[in-house]
Structures are given as C-alpha cells and as structure tokens.
Write a structure and sequence with these properties.
Helices cover 25% and strands 29% of the residues. By secondary structure, it is an alpha+beta fold. Helix 5 packs across helix 7. It is globular. The two termini are 36 Å apart.
C-alpha cells in the first residue's frame, strides 16, 4: 500500500512484472481477491535501480521465482541498489544513483503506534509525510533535519543505542494494536516525551555535524480517526489460501477496515506483499464471531 496526498493505492504487478495500481481513495469500495499459487508462497518482487534524488526504476524478477530473502530471490537482491541503504553510513559504499538520493536532506522522526509502541526512523525530504503515513503511525514528531541520508542514519543508530528506541515495529503488531488503541492523549504524551528525550540526546555531543534538531508534528490523514474509533477485531481468516473480500471502509497505513456480513474487521494488507492474487468479486468465507464478555 502506497500513500500520497491524494490518497492510498494498492501497488500491484502482473505475472510478467508489469506495474499496476488500484486506487483506494474513494471509499467505501468493494475489494475482493483470491490467493493463487502454493499455500503461503511468496514471489520475488524484483529489484530497483536508483537514478537520483527523485527517480528510480523497478525491474521485475527475470525468473519470476519465489522469494528467498525477504521479498526477493538471491539474484534480484544482489542487483538491488537499496541493499546498500542501511549500511552506507558505515561502509561508505553506494552506487552513483543511490549516492545522489542520499545527498538530499533527510528527517529523523519518532513514531508511536496505536498501542504505544514507539520507534525511531528516517525519511528523505520527498517522502517526509508519506513515509510515516505508509508505516501507520498514529502520532509522530520530527526531531532532526540532517544534511544527507548518511548523517541521519548515524543519528538513528545513536537513538537506538543510547535511547533504546527500536527501528522497526512488525506490521502484524500494528494491526493488532488498532483493535485496542490507547487514548489519543496518552499516545501524544508518550510520543512527545520520547521525542523530547531524543532531542536532548542529539543536543549533546553525538560525534557528528551536519544536522539540526527541530520540533514539528506530523499530520495524519483524516481516515485515521474512523479506523481508530472502530473497535474492530483483527481479520481472523488465514491469508495462506482462499477467497477474501468485503467493503473497504477506511485505511490506516497498511491496515484496511473492512465490512463483511459478520461485522467489521482489521485487514493487514501488508500480508499480501509478494503473494499472487486474482482480483474480482470474491467474498470471505463465513467468520465465526463470539461476543466479548465483560
């Protein structure tokens, strides 16, 4: 699921690898799919070449084979420019296009999710807003502006090492948190405290120049409130196989709030990454619903 200011869209590719997109900005909308291939099989998503700060080119997997490492086969991982991304501040190694991409200003942020889980992360200036939106943050603050991508990754590592902020939160945990979100004020207070603490850390000597601390809050899309107040359960059916579908009511990051005859559920669309599907008028199998006891 990708986001920009116009709304979300589901990034797709045909079996030969041609890119496609399913816009989901006009909701509610009917969405159905059938999972294809062997049970649980994930296919390689190909590789990318970075051409500069704003341009990249994606290539389909030449073999159209299953993924071996994450969402890529071995040969596509070896071809991918982004494999250098997370170690470039230590190795100094980057292809020319990626080096040009990293030369633009970057932002360091602190993101808090619906259950209070909080992480540190980075975004290029171009993806300053969309990065947090796609990750499904509920509250987030920018804490530093860095001259380039190498410097911001040094700051990110310092935040993890000295402040204990992790650099990742699993997508399944983000979706599960939306079923029982903490109060908005609690999340804001928690995020503000983590951001303030990190700014204080960065204001001390972290051994690198080329950045400044900032105080700026990220603004989430309006659809966030509908998902956060839905009190829906996590979609219980397995994405290993079968037909799935319903009416998409709202989206938050990679999570869709869907309506089926049995009620509303939170669907983790990140689980579809690398899966082969057929889109169409498919519906989910009946879902057993048990009333909660209080």
């Amino acid at each position: 699921m990708s986001w920009d200011r116009s709304g979300p869209s589901l990034a797709l590719a045909t079996p030969p690898g041609a890119p496609a997109s399913l816009p989901l900005e006009n909701l509610p909308a009917v969405f159905g799919f059938r999972l294809l291939g062997d049970r649980g099989a994930r296919f390689c998503l190909g590789y990318s070449k970075v051409l500069g700060p704003k341009d990249r080119r994606s290539f389909p997997c030449p073999e159209q084979t299953t993924a071996e490492r994450g969402y890529q086969c071995g040969p596509c991982f070896a071809r991918d420019d982004f494999r250098f991304m997370h170690d470039v501040h230590r190795s100094g190694v980057a292809p020319p296009g990626l080096a040009a991409y990293l030369a633009q200003e970057h932002w360091l942020y602190v993101a808090t999710f619906a259950d209070g889980a909080t992480k540190v992360g980075t975004a290029s200036h171009r993806s300053k807003w969309s990065r947090l939106t796609e990750q499904g943050a509920v509250v987030a603050r920018y804490v530093a502006r860095a001259d380039d991508g190498r410097i911001v990754r040094v700051l990110e590592d310092a935040a993890t090492r000295h402040a204990g902020l992790p650099q990742a939160v699993r997508s399944a945990a983000k979706t599960a948190a939306l079923a029982r979100p903490r109060a908005p004020r609690d999340l804001d207070v928690l995020n503000a405290a983590a951001a303030d603490g990190l700014r204080q850390l960065l204001a001390a000597d972290v051994g690198i120049d080329g950045f400044e601390t900032v105080e700026e809050q990220w603004d989430p899309p309006g659809s966030w409130e509908q998902v956060l107040t839905a009190r829906a359960s996590v979609y219980p059916l397995s994405f290993e196989t079968g037909d799935h579908g319903g009416a998409v009511l709202a989206l938050l990051g990679q999570t869709a709030l869907i309506a089926v005859p049995e009620g509303r559920f939170l669907l983790n669309l990140a689980l579809l990454r690398g899966r082969r599907v057929e889109l169409g008028e498919f519906r989910s199998a009946p879902i057993a619903v048990q009333d909660e006891l209080f």
